Amino acid sequence: MNGPERKKYNPDNKTGYEYELLADHLAGFIERGEWPAGSRLPGERALSEEYGVALDTVRKATQILRDRGLVQTLKSKGTFVARR
């Protein structure tokens, strides 16, 4: 593989839409406390590059996290882990 190794977010080889798998992976960071309440998630472009996925995939994954109530997005500020 050329270039930097991409982070793997599907270690169990689960099937499903890529954006759903990514959302589950990112939700794991929140649930384990690696991203505590109030912390800012990496930007969409940074996540896209880090995981080697399309920007739209990251946007759909972020929307799923919003729908689950795990994050809040503030226009021109970023996406933050929601307080429970």
UniProtKB/TrEMBL annotation:
Lineage: Bacteria, Bacillati, Actinomycetota, Actinomycetes, Pseudonocardiales
Record protein name field: GntR family transcriptional regulator
Highest taxon, organism lineage: Bacteria
Single GO MF descriptor: DNA binding
Keywords from the UniProt entry: DNA-binding, Transcription, Transcription regulation
Keyword Transcription regulation: yes
Pfam families named among the record's database cross-references: GntR
UniProt source species: Prauserella muralis
GO biological process, one term: negative regulation of DNA-templated transcription
